[in-house]
Amino acid sequence: MKEDGIQFRSPDRRKDRDEMFDMIAKVFSHAGYYNFRDHCRHGYIGGNRYYDWDASQIGILDGAIVTHYGVWGYDMRIGAATVRCGGIGAVATHGDYRKRGLMAKTVDASIDAMKACGYDMSILFGIPNFYHKFGYVRSWSRVSYAVRVELLARERPNVKPKKFRDMTRGDIEAIYTREHAGLTGTAVRPTYGKAGRGWHKWQGYFWTDRRGRTIGYVMTNVRDGALECYEVGGDADEALRVLAMLARKLGCRELKFVDVHAETPIMKKVRRGDCTTTINNRKSGGPMMRTIDLASSLRKMCGELSRRLKKSDLADWRGNLLIADAREKVTLAVANGQVSVAKAAKTKHAIRGGDEIAQLLIGTDAPAETVEAWGMRVSGDAKQLLPVLFPAQHPMLCPWDGY
User: How far is the C-alpha of 11 from the C-alpha of 48, rounded, in Å?
Assistant: First the structure.
């Protein structure tokens, strides 16, 4: 696509990579130009099979690459359903070409490319007051839970933790998959190889049973006097004993859980005790999302929507429900406890909104709160169906899977 002299296209992995890495590294030179260039070359992009060369877009002007909008593909859970998600990173505009609206056009080109490549949604972690211009809305709040070390149990763990750094290990991935099944917002692994995670200096600890089988793990980092924990697998009580021992050994004054999914066993246990909860809620910036293909998203969610319906008092409800966002209208046919995407049909039962319809799909907040906050129009029986089909899900993406 060519517009106002600038051409937008997918980057060529052979012809464009060196120039593209050079431009991106200059934009992110605060991390060290050569370090970031080599990181892009060998890990983040060039060494990462999840970077999507077709969905990503570059802008070319005056014979040079001047913009880049990167897409990393992965599958995201919404309950028991999975949708194809484009994670956004390395959003960069050459310093000599800023303030000209070139990135806005690059984003539009990438969204078109993502839809053509079969993506359902897109999620990013963005700067404030920028990405809302392109249809992105808050996906969830960043949440951390802090426990003072003196409040942690002094009972020593029954296992001997061993160090590791590679979260792509099969034994770790198997525990993660088992314990995060059905947790909305989490990624279906594998996502990114260890080369793509090169900038993280996290330290992992795992433990085994008497037969040498891995039965639990934690991923941690020490920052500002706190032992930060980003992910936990295995028995929650044992994991807490391990973390308490590590926090004391490392001289930390508190144990902090950062972006750990609220519905994991360990977070349920932590919330029942003494802890301080910090919620970082941004209207624009931080974790944000937009729907790329509403019809495809809802089609993939039909099994999950049917399960939710069958468990409710509306299991016998029959009719059509219209879901409309800023770009699409989709009709859901409901009968015999089953939900399916149907051809457009007239119906008095409707949920009409803008880009914020995406928040209903992943259950960012209670649906009534989302409807009120954004002035969505709800008619017919849709008011009763909303909390059944689109309940709050406490979505969260594990930090390892970020992009």
Answer: 15
Q: Which two tokens stand for residue 319?
A: 């009719």
The 10s digit of each residue's pLDDT in 79-120 is 999 999 999 999 999 999 999 999 999 999 999 999 999 999
Rg of the chain over all Cα atoms, to the nearest angstrom: 23
Residues 247 and 254: their CA atoms lie apart, in Å, by 7
Residue 110: CB partners within 8 Å, gap ≥ 6? 55, 56, 57, 69, 71
SS3 call for 252: coil
Looking at domain 2-138, its CATH superfamily turns out to be: Gcn5-related N-acetyltransferase (GNAT) (3.40.630.30)
- Cα–Cα distance, 389 to 306 (Å, whole number): 8
Q: Is the pTM of this model over 0.85?
A: yes
For the chain, the structural domain boundaries read 2-138, 143-280, 293-389
- Identical fold between 143-280 and 293-389: no
pLDDT tens digits, 343-395: 988 999 999 999 999 999 999 999 999 999 999 999 999 999 999 999 999 99
CB 209 within 8 Å of CB 175: no
Strand duo 2-3 + 203-208: pairing = unpaired
Two structure tokens written together for 314: 């509306």
With a CB cutoff of 8 Å and minimum separation 6, the contacts of 122 are: 71, 85, 86, 87, 88, 111, 114, 136, 289, 290, 292
Task: Classify domain 143-280 by CATH number.
Answer: 3.40.630.30
Residue in 117, 93, 85 with CA at minimum distance from that of residue 27: 93
Spatial neighbors of 397 by CB under 8 A, at least 6 apart, are: 76, 123, 185, 186, 187, 259, 287
CATH topology of domain 293-389: Nonspecific Lipid-transfer Protein; Chain A (3.30.1050)
Close Cβ partners of 190 (under 8 Å, ≥ 6 residues apart) = 168, 173
Structure tokens at 242: 């391990």
Distance CA 104, CA 86 (A): 17
Q: Which residues are CB-contacts of 169 (< 8 A; sequence separation ≥ 6)? A: none
Element (H, E) at 222: strand 214-223
Cα angle 201, 230, 288 (rounded to 5 degrees) comes to 100
3-state SS assignment for residue 325: coil
